[in-house]
UniProtKB/TrEMBL annotation:
Taxonomic superkingdom: Bacteria
Gene3D superfamilies in alphabetical order: 3.30.420.40
Chain segments annotated as transmembrane: none
InterPro entries given in the database record: ATPase_BadF, ATPase_NBD, Euk-type_GlcNAc_Kinase
Every ATPase BadF/BadG/BcrA/BcrD type domain range: 21-296
Organism: Asticcacaulis biprosthecium C19
Protein name: BadF/BadG/BcrA/BcrD ATPase family protein
Length: 310
């Protein structure tokens, strides 16, 4: 457990009874509660925490998870005025996003919001300098160096998300349709992916309303064929690993002596990284939820928006 940051906090810790951390990504949000002594008192999961899907949806998911975690602690929303909440949410890109996010939710004793990348790096290095590369449904590189936040990537599914489950799934569908049209190699994998949907037209129907998490759900199938040596699947995974290596290298250039891989796809892609990229990697000391709790305790959010009502 990370010690409470008594000396660096911007407020007196005893005035808060509960410190809550929220880690929100494209697929789910997680909540963790600690009391004033740092004891874990509750955890829960909810739906997506990406604010680009809508603040009403995200807050409903967060509050549902908070209710579950509080119930495990024998508490309820009456503790909100004595709660300091740290939000690390996908889709928060600047202080304006953070302010809008906090304004859309209920009143807490204190609320701080930043990107999920910022809370991930705080957790990974226990508040010290370092870099992280998130690889999950989406992706984002982020460094916290000498009190400055530096983002690399993280521009969303439409413009990026290289080194993620969603981008892997999207590229797999493209490669499969190329194979069907005779524009690329046809392999057991491309045939299996068409069979998974039914026909090429069914793939088009799928993408009409598909969200990043829907593309990401294809990742286990792709990895199965890649691990078996299918040439198309291997190329798809190698492309993701190559982009991840570029992110890691750039974060290192920007001053992150070490970089941690975090997110659900991190252990999946890590063996495919180049030796040069792996040489910069470190194991995270804690997860993004602990980073969000550290932010709730008063560590900088990397932005400027913070709400204090108590």
């Amino acid at each position: 457990m990370i010690p409470f940051m008594n000396q660096s906090s911007a407020f007196q810790i005893p005035s808060y009874q509960v410190f809550a951390g929220v880690d929100g990504g494209g697929t789910k949000c997680r909540v963790r509660l600690r009391d004033a002594q740092g004891t874990l008192i509750g955890e829960a999961e909810g739906g997506s925490g990406n604010i680009r899907l809508g603040l009403d949806l995200v807050w409903n998911n967060i509050l549902s998870a908070l209710d579950t975690a509080l119930a495990k602690a024998g508490r309820n929303r009456s503790v909100f005025p004595k709660m300091s909440l740290g939000l690390g949410l996908a889709g928060i890109a600047d202080a304006g996003d953070a302010a809008r996010t906090m304004a859309a939710g209920p009143q807490f004793g204190r609320c701080d919001a930043s990107s999920d990348a910022h809370t991930a790096v705080l957790g990974a290095f226990s508040g010290r300098d370092g870099g992280i590369l998130i690889s999950g449904t989406g992706s984002a590189g982020y460094a916290w160096v000498a009190g400055h936040a530096i983002q690399v990537g993280g521009w969303g599914f439409e413009l990026g998300d290289e080194g993620s489950a969603a981008d892997l799934g999207r590229n797999a569908l493209r490669a499969t349709l190329h194979a069907h049209d005779g524009l690329g190699p046809q392999t057991e994998f491309t045939r299996a992916l068409i069979a998974h949907f039914g026909t090429p037209a069914d793939i088009v129907h799928f993408v009409t309303d598909a969200r990043p998490r829907d593309y990401g759900q294809l990742a286990p199938m792709i990895m199965k064929f890649a691990d078996a040596g299918d040439s198309v699947a291997v190329t798809l995974v190698e492309d993701q690993a190559r982009f991840m290596g570029r992110y890691v290298g750039r974060l290192h250039e920007l001053g992150a002596a070490k970089v941690c891989l975090v997110g659900g796809m991190a252990p999946v892609f890590q063996p495919w990284l180049s030796p040069a990229a792996r040489a910069v990697l470190a194991e995270p000391e804690h997860d993004a939820l602990e980073g969000a709790i550290l932010m709730a305790q008063g560590l900088p959010n990397g932005l400027t928006a913070t709400q204090v009502t108590a």
